[in-house]
Amino acid sequence: MTIEIVVYNITSARKAQEGGADRIELCDNPGEGGTTPSYGVIETVRQHVTMDVFVMIRPRGGDFHYDSYEFHAMKRDISMCQKLSVDGVVLGILNPDGTLDKKRCKELIEKARPLKVTCHRAFDMTRDPFEALEDCIEVGFDRILTSGHQTHAVKGVDLIAELIKRANGRIAIMPGSGVNENTVEEIVSKTGAKEIHFSATAFDNSAMVYRNEKIAGMGSDEGAEFKLRTVDPERVRKMRSLAEAVTR
After folding, report:
1. In the chain, what are the domain boundaries?
2. Where found in the cell (predicted)?
């Protein structure tokens, strides 16, 4: 069983490795579903972990249809990732009609080689999952991250199982979204997945002693500036144990 942890900062990456993860998906901006992290963060993570590092290539939150300027930025970010010796990138571009933008996805995949390339949950926003499956295979993606076109993977297990069946080894299908200690056994047993993606989120308290009580969350979530998102290594270990128990 391959365990991939989505992380949003340097500490989380180190904690994911401590818990025995096989791979991380390194992102920024969890509130927007993940965007491309900075050069400095990628470089520092790469220098301090030995597991595989896959980097999110997404120039902004929102939809997955990008203009020419954003597409150029994605190409530049892929070049940056190659220079920093990461192991893979995670991306996806859609057409307005809900189909995969095969032309531009293929261009990015070819540019990224020899890095591995995962299609992220843009896949879950496509009009037809089976059409999108074949399109992902055609353009050269190595893997699809999917919740089975549902909010959480446990709700999409039937579709995920069918995707794995139809893929027949031509591309890896990795369930993600809402995968936790309460759902992982059902997801793995019903889909036959060999890889899983989750966050194992925990929060550390800020080391700040002085706190301006007049400002909470810098205008967003109350007190968020004093809650530091990280990964619980013990949750990573437990999730592996639960997932692998199902496959024995």
Report:
1. 2-200+233-247
2. Cytoplasm
